[in-house]
Amino acid sequence: MEQTLKVAKPPMPNMPPATGHMLKVPKIPKMTVRRLSDYYRILRTLESQGDTEPLSSEKMSRLTGFTAAQVRRDLAYFGSFGKRGVGYDIGDLQQSLRSILGIDHPWSLALVGVGNLGTALLSYPGYRAQGFHIVAAFDSDATKHGRRFGNLVVRPLEDLAETAREHNISMAIVAVPASEAQAVIDTIVAAGIKGILNFAPVKLQVPPGVFLEKVDLSIEIEYLSYLLTNS
Amino acid sequence: MEQTLKVAKPPMPNMPPATGHMLKVPKIPKMTVRRLSDYYRILRTLESQGDTEPLSSEKMSRLTGFTAAQVRRDLAYFGSFGKRGVGYDIGDLQQSLRSILGIDHPWSLALVGVGNLGTALLSYPGYRAQGFHIVAAFDSDATKHGRRFGNLVVRPLEDLAETAREHNISMAIVAVPASEAQAVIDTIVAAGIKGILNFAPVKLQVPPGVFLEKVDLSIEIEYLSYLLTNS
DNA sequence: GTTTGTGAACAGATTCACAGCT
DNA sequence: AGCTGTGAATCTGTTCACAAAC
Prior knowledge:
The structure is a homodimer. Helix content of chain A is 39%, strand content 16%. The first copy, chain A, contains eight helices and nine strands. Chains A and B meet through helix 1, helix 5, strand 8 and helix 8 of A and helix 1, helix 5, strand 8 and helix 8 of B. Chain A binds a DNA duplex through residues 11, 27, 29, 31-32, 54, 56-58, 67-70, 72-73, 75-76, 80-88.
C-alpha cells in the first residue's frame, strides 16, 4: 500500500527499436512531469489544512483546473497510487511524488550572476519546502567578489569547479547577461554540473547528458502582448 | 513586398462551426507564438551584427535549434513572409513579427508586490527593446508606500484602478506571496487590466477575456530535479 | 455505488516531401 | 537551382468511456 522511493512500474508499450542502454523511464511527456509539481503543491496545501480525506481525481481536477482523466493518466505513468472506489491517500501520494520528482532529499545549487535578478533569486523563498539550497554564489565581475548576501560570499567564477566538488553542487542557476551566458554555461558544464536553470534570453548549447531549462521573461511578456493584440 | 502593420492572411482551413463573433486569428498553437519571440530575437541580433543577407529557414533552424520545417510552418500561420528561392528579408520579417506580437508600440505595465523578486523585476533590463515600461509599483504593505525605486514611488494597492486609467496600463506583473495572489488578481481585474504575468506559485482564477500567464520557479527547479533523478 | 487505471478514439502539433514560385 | 508554403503523413498528448477493484 505504501508507494515509496521507487518510480514504480514503467509501463513499456511500444518501445522504440531498443536504443542501446536505456536506464530511462520510457517516455513521460514533459508537461506531465510539470503537472506533478502542481499536484504535489495541492497535496501539501491540503495536508497543511488538516485535510485527511482520500482525494479523488475529480477533486484534484477542481483544485488544479486540469481534467480528472488527465490527473489519473499523469499519475498512472508512474504507477498505481490510488484505490479504486476511494481515491488517493494524501500523505502517500505526496511521498510518491516527492520520490518521483527527486525532492525527497535536499539539493545544493550554485547561483552564477549576482546582479539584480541574481540577488533577488538568492533571497527568494520560492525554493519550496526548503529542499533547494543555494550554497554558493559566483560572479565574473571582480568588484563583486567578497560581497556578502546573508551567509554567502560572492566568489570568482574560476572557483566554481572546486566549490561544486566541495559542496556537492548538482544544479546551477544562471542569471548573467546574454552576452556572457554561453561562457558561463561552459564553465558550469566543465565543473560537472548537470542541471542548469537559465534566465539569460539567449539560445545556449549544452552537451548531451546536461539538462538546460530556461525562464525567459521576454517571451512571457511578448506572449501576453500577442494575446492582448490578437483577441 | 513590404509586410507591415497588419497580421496578414489568417488562413482559414477547417473553421469550427462559426463561433458567434470571431475577431480572432483561427487557431495558432501557443508554442508557435512563443517561438516567434525567439525568431524575433535572432533577427534583431543578426541585424545588429550588420547581417543583411536574406535568411533561409535552414539558417534560422541552425540559430534556434528548431527544425526548418517548423520555422516555415510557424511563420506561414500568419502569412507569406518569404521569397521562394531566396529566404526571408531580415528587416521585413522583423517588422512583421513586431506587428504580430503587438510589440510595434510601447506597453505600460504595473508591478504589484515590491518584495525581493518585485524589486529585481523593476530593474531587470530584460524588457527587451524598451517596449515594456513599468510605470507604477504597488504593494499592500503600508510600510513600503512612498518608497522610491528609480523614478517610481510605491503606492497602495487601492490606487491601482485610478493609476491604471491615468497611465493606460494594460498589463500587470504580480510578485506577491501565494496567500495574497488571488486578492491581488481580483483587484487587477477590477481595474480593467487584461494581461497578467504571475510569479506566485498558486492556481489563480481570472474571468474570460483576461489572460494570465505564470512563471513558476518551483516547477522549473523540480523539473530539473526530476531529470537529474530519472536519467 | 464509487473511483481508478487504461485501451481506444480523438485532437493537436510536428515533420515529410514536394509542387510552385523566384 | 534554391527555398518557401503547404497538403498529407506521422507523431504526441489528451479525452473518452468502461472494465476492474474496492
